[in-house]
User: Which sequence fits this backbone?
């Protein structure tokens, strides 16, 4: 649990202190999307199929601390530094870098007993993150369009 506490402090500190390129309402709405996306994935991959999990099998307060403590801050950092107005290869490179960082964090979480694999492979996660980061930016674009239309 110490690993999660330190992670929450560091990620939230970075998220609060960085120069914001996105609005607070965008951070808020994107954080809820990220947490929903994570909870939906965990419902099936963790709870139904038991391919991986956090701490021990089934829901736990530690998992909730992880999701509510890390995902909003991580999402804010990822979206804040995303190269929105750059060429496609810069965007792809950014997504790959985020993918590698997420896998490294996942490996540390396994090492410290926060996460476990039960049939899941690290490269499944690596492939997943290649879709998750673009999904976060896609959600932000839709949210911006909806707000721009006054909906």
Assistant:
């Amino acid at each position: 649990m110490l690993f999660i506490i330190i992670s929450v402090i560091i990620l939230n500190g970075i998220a609060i202190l960085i120069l914001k390129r996105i609005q607070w309402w965008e951070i808020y709405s994107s954080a809820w999307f990220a947490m929903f996306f994570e909870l939906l994935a965990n419902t099936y991959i963790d709870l139904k199929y038991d391919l991986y999990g956090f701490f021990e099998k089934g829901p736990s307060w530690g998992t909730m601390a992880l999701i509510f403590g890390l995902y909003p801050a991580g999402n804010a950092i990822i979206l804040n530094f995303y190269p929105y107005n750059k060429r496609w290869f810069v965007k792809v490179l950014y997504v790959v870098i985020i993918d590698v960082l997420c896998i490294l964090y996942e490996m540390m979480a396994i090492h410290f007993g926060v996460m476990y694999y039960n049939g899941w492979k690290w490269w499944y996660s690596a492939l997943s993150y290649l879709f998750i980061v673009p999904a976060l930016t896609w959600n932000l674009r839709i949210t911006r369009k909806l707000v721009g239309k006054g909906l």
About this structure: The chain has a mean pLDDT of 92. The helical segments are 2-17, 24-48, 61-81, 88-111, 122-148.
